[in-house]
Specification:
Blueprint lengths: L2 E7 L2 E7 L5 H8 L18 E4 L2 E4 L12 E3 L1 H4 L7 H8 L9 H11 L9 H7 L11 H22 L1
Parallel strand pairs: 1-5
Antiparallel strand pairs: 1-2, 3-4, 3-5
Helix pairs in contact: 3-6
Length: 164
């Protein structure tokens, strides 16, 4: 039996009418038009469907829409757009951390969670740990890790300028 769910996605409250067992990934893509999150494995192993739920990176292919009602959900579209890119997205472009692009939104969402309240540039090991749920078949990860380091440096520099 279908039901109306209120979802707060990228800062906007939306009503969605669907079956409670529909995955959040399917609702985001099919019912709401947020297509940055991709379905690749459907098992939570690749991270291509990652979104933030209450500031935590989560594989949306494993979450039912009924589990997310009234929770804050942020997709890659909520982090930045082509016209107004987030520092993290800019770093991915400048460091050449995107190739086919299929996994990129999941990496950006996971990295955004890592960089939320940093006081210094995270170590390579910490970055690898934060991105551990995301798989890439193209880049070899070196440029992705460099992009996260670059974004952290940019973010800290901006905070320093803005605060003092």
């Amino acid at each position: 039996m279908k039901k109306v769910f209120q979802l707060k996605v990228n800062g906007k409250v939306n009503e969605v009418y669907c079956h409670p067992s529909k995955t959040l990934l399917d609702v985001l893509r099919e019912d709401m038009g947020y297509t940055a999150s991709k379905e690749c494995c459907g098992k939570g192993e690749c991270g291509s469907c990652t979104a933030l739920i209450e500031d935590q990176p989560v594989c949306t292919c494993l979450v039912l829409v009924s589990q997310t009602e009234n929770k804050e959900i942020v997709t890659c579209e909520g982090i930045g757009t082509t016209e107004n890119m987030d520092i993290l997205q800019q770093a991915f472009v400048s460091e050449g951390a995107t190739q086919c692009g299929y996994c990129t939104p999941g990496f950006i969402v996971s990295a955004k969670s890592l960089l939320k309240d940093i006081k210094s540039v995270p170590s390579k090991e910490r970055i690898k740990e934060a991105l551990g749920g995301n798989l890439c078949r193209c880049t070899g990860y070196t440029k992705i890790i460099k992009a996260v380091e670059t974004a952290a440096q940019m973010q800290l520099s901006l905070e320093k300028v803005n605060n003092g």
